[in-house]
Description:
Strand order of the largest sheet: 1-8-3-6
Amino acid sequence: MTAEGHGTHGILGALPPEHRDRLLGFARDVFFPPGDRIFDEGGTADRFWIIRAGLVALDVYEPGRGPTVVETLGEGELLGWSWLFEPYRWHLGAQTRTEVQAYEFDALQVRAAIDADPAFGLAVTRCVAAVAIGRRLRAARTRLLDLYGPPGRKAPTA
């Protein structure tokens, strides 16, 4: 599987072509219906996805309130980064908002390839850190300021 015809923006666009094609070699196509719970906070992070089409809401569980959406992901975005770092547990939950088409990756396979090829490992790790983690943390911070900031105060934009 290559990126040709599948778009090269988002996380796939951030990877050099040889590493992008190598990563896509581990992919399988999956589909999720609207309202499907993909994973729950605290669950085992044994796979990850790159969204090809559709929307997925990331949420955090708040006692007494239930799940609170902190970010919505769309086409080209990485769904899940907890697979890359021990203890391999999800930090958030994820539920589809619409039908979702995605590439699904087995975390164990990709981690083995990362360990076997330092150049591939560095490229994937840097990409996950820059594209997913940094952006996700900024979005979560902004959302939390929206939820818990003083009334009438607008949260800064990221």
